[in-house]
Amino acid sequence: MSKPANKTLILPGAIGWEIWTGQPESGFTLHEATTIERAGDLTALPQGDISLLFPVKSITAIPLKVTTEDESLFPELAAMHAERLGIRPDPMAGQLSDTFIIDRQGETTALLSIQLRPPGEGDMPTRGPKEFDLSARAFPTTGECLAIWKEFGRWVFAFHHAGNTVYCQATSISNPVPGDDLVREIRLAQIQLSLQGIELDPSRIALWTDETPSTEALSTAFRCPVEVSPRPAPVLPTPRCKLLPADVRAARRAALRRRNIILTTAAIVLAYLGLIGYQGQKLWRIQQETARLEADALAAAPDAATFETHKAKWRELSHAVETQYSPIEILHRVARCIPPGGLRLRKATVTATEITLIGEAQQPAIVNQFRGALTRSKDLANFKWSTSEPTQSTRGWEFNFRTEIPKN
Questions:
Q1: What 3-state class would DSSP assign to 229?
Q2: Measured between alpha carbons, how far is 362 from 390 in angstroms, rounded to an integer?
Q3: Residue 334 and residue 385: Cα distance in Å, rounded?
Q4: pLDDT for 379-408, tens place per residue?
Q5: Which of 8, 193, 314, 352 is 20 to 30 Å from the Cα of 238, by its Cα?
Q6: Pairing state of beta strands 204-208 and 144-151?
Q7: Phi, psi of 124 (to 5 degrees)
């Protein structure tokens, strides 16, 4: 049996990109540690499938908790949570998000949502990787661990729970010694995540470096032991990541080339048909066919005119015969928008041109809820409501809303 081909891992190192080769089962060994910071500048990569592990600085990690065990809902819930934070991946740039399970407790599931920034010019190797993942997931840990290491000269950190990455972040700190400034950034991340219900309290700190720096600031701040060692050899994380960025520029260039080929082919076909069209016999047949079609069109003209008249009359009667313009149906849809809490319609008028709603409520907030429900209602989407602020009277807060019946 032939020996399986080695795989190649490209991952960020302390200074530049590192190239590792080997097999997921037997482990990987360092092939080359470069000083190159642009993956597109890597040359002479080893043979075999390539896996690119994105640096921590290229992603945004968003932990969250959801009250469901249905894994099919996790991507949608994570996307909604990211949008609330103002993060929305470019749908034209490929699959830029993924979700991983951190922990399960009853019906509550802790997740890590990853949002990848679209790779820029030169950020991808010239030889396309077969799969992608994250550097923070490539180094195994145990227990409640805070891992700290350097990527491209900057300190990065990641919290782990039972071997799963809970959160990771790149810093702007390049000091040789992890001091108080790094502690402040880690503490700030803990506070921000604590406000979201994500508590991170490491029982040990793994400081991965080839140097022997002072660990006093870390041990004092977190009150746990600091283990200093070289960064471990990477592994291919399980489960595999689903990130799959697309080179949009290359896709557009390919689409432009296809468009030019289609236009050129169409021009050649049209020129060929033009030459054939000038041939006598076919030209005569075309003229005969044209005459026949013109005769058919003249014969069908009365029916076409009758049909157009019928459509015009039907449009005139649409407000009387179509259910959506029925006064009872309109009032029924309006009634479904009335919130609980004491709002009452004193007068509702539906004419052929407009709708008027006059009523009162005990509180102005209830009137505002009613206004919002009318505006958001899909059943009343064709109506543009004119809503004034509620006015106070002896009976509560009065309102007067109106809208015009849309014309076809």
A1: strand
A2: 11
A3: 12
A4: 888 888 888 888 888 888 999 999 888 776
A5: 193
A6: parallel
A7: -115, 145
Residue 275 parent element (H or E) = helix 248-277
Packing angle, helices 280-316 and 248-277, rounded to 10: 120
For residues 326 and 372, which has the higher predicted lDDT (pLDDT)?
372
The residue length of the chain stands at 408
CB-based contacts of 161: which residues, under 8 Å, 6+ apart? Answer: 102, 103, 110, 144
Interval 101-137: pLDDT, tens: 999 988 899 999 999 998 888 888 888 888 999 999 9
Written as six digits, the tokens of 180 are 């108080």
Per domain, the residue ranges of the chain are 55-118+135-245, 323-404
Q: What topology is assigned to 323-404 in CATH? A: Gyrase A; domain 2 (3.30.1360)
DSSP 323-388: GGG-HHHHHHHHHHTPPTTT-EEEEEEE-SSEEEEEEEESSHHHHHHHHHHHHH-GGGTT--EEEP
| CATH class, range 55-118+135-245 | alpha beta
Q: What would the pLDDT profile of 217-248 be if each residue is shown by its tens digit?
A: 999 999 999 999 999 999 998 888 888 886 53
Widest CA span of the chain, in angstroms? 98
**Would you state the pLDDT for residue 37?**
93
Measured distance CA(361)–CA(160) in Å, rounded: 53
CA distance 360 to 341: 11
Please provide the distance, in angstroms rounded to a whole number, between the alpha carbons at the two ends of the chain. 74
Structure tokens at 185: 């950034």
> Which structure tokens are listed for 67?
């009250």
Q: Residue 77 carries which side chain, given as an amino acid letter?
A: L
Beta strands in 248-353 (DSSP E): 344-350
Q: Are 165 and 158 in contact (CB under 8 A)?
A: yes
